[in-house]
Here is the input.
Amino acid sequence: MEVKSFKGDLKSLQIKSAVVFVYEGDMRSLSKLGRGISAKVRRALELEEYKGKEGQVEKVLLPGQRIEVVYVVGLGKKDKVEEDTFRRASALAVKRLKKDKIDKAVFVLPRGVRDSHHQATAEGAVLGSYSFDKYKSKKEDRFEISEILLEGSPDEIVKLGILLAEAQNYARNLVNEPGNVINPVTLAEEAERLAKEYGLECRVYDEKEIQEMGMLALWSVGKGSATPPRFIHLTYKPKEKAKDRIAIVGKGLTFDSGGLNIKPGDYMRTMKMDKSGACAVLGIMKAIAQLKPRVEVHGIIGAAENMPSGNAYRPDDIIRAKNGKHIEIDNTDAEGRVTLADALSYASELKPSKIIDMATLTGACMVALGEYTAGLFTNSGRFGEEIKKVAKRTGERVWELPMDDERLRKKIKKGPADVVNTGGRYGGAITAAMFLEEFVGEGIEWVHLDIAGPAWSREEYGYYTQGGTGFGVRTCIEYILSLEGRK
Ligand code: BES
Ligand code: MN
Ligand code: ZN
Here is the structure.
């Protein structure tokens, strides 16, 4: 499917289908179709008592007219509209066009919308057309739209929107691949392939090098699996002097069985998604390599498979992480933070001004915030606020949870080692974040996103389908662009 900008007179465009986005109780964008067609559509809408509430779609057939079918898509009240409203509406339109097997259409937005709304519409179209059906043998219901024209949208803005959405769809594809296809070794191969295609630096460390570098935490988590762990470091460096340096770290558990503290079947199901943070990192690096901002970006992934076996790490084990701190293992199913201990230590040694990590870290975060919102944790109020501001625009819901509860912090500081890998029953997302903070270098501003909920969708909604969502990709890219002053 091609999405592109169309600038010019709609009345001279040869196209049979149009999608017109309208505010609730304000159908003025219809007039762009020309007076005759607009009047006919309005009459049909009146008969149906169509109001333009968000998500309300009306299909109007105009046999014999220049435009033969018009879909009117409601955006809801004008003063309530956000970027994400356009993203959702655009995806909804694409899903409907696909269902009705419409090959080409022009999208018409209300007058006076901002560039960010045009961009969100382009993103929504690309995100909404996503499907993961490569393992379906019958090619039925595989209709592809060939072209979407975005009327009045600036070309550069449309291209940016497409690029962001494609980076996200790439991440979704990787997340959806099962553990028998993507394991630590094949994930590292994919990173190398990506780096080659887009001209990024890529260094992969194998299980021997991981041990030599003192990343025994990552190694320990991975050692129970028949497939050894990998450590992946992708680098983007701008040609000119960089304005800033940032590291993006992703949890890369290609499958999380729980290890010796094995998960019951119901909980183990979908744990191929435990690599979502890593997949987001790859999506971000793919986009950054193309956008070429004046910011140095490091993409870092500790990839491992958490399995029970005679070689597996155990409860009671005490492990030395890369930064010299010792971790006592209480529960082998709290493995993500153990791998991230080394990934964050490594990232800190690169001396970035900022680190963002994304991890499907705790079920507790989903209990706290529900499955559609990521937990945000930070050691820097300012950085946290900046990410929240960007996330408002990208529509990726985040909510900050506190890091200042010193009594709670004591729960991970118990036992014979410096830290223990669980903090007990209550505040599980917070104690996990506090554990990670132990491995963030002095003076580095850090944001941790616990994406356990939103990384995976159990149902189809908005621009998501059932499965991996690519959550975090858009927010991180937009944040990096903001560092450069592009936005
Ligand atoms: N990968 C899981 C967290 C998770 C759960 C992500 C559900 C997505 C959906 C993580 O490794 C884990 O198992 N966490 C444990 C921690 C506990 C043992 C302290 C959890 O949340 O139950
Ligand atoms: Mn686990
Ligand atoms: Zn996990």
About this structure: The longest helix spans residues 155-176. Residues 253, 256, 274, 335-336 surround zinc ion (ligand 3) (CB under 6 Å). The chain has two domains: 2-152, 165-483. The mean pLDDT is 97.
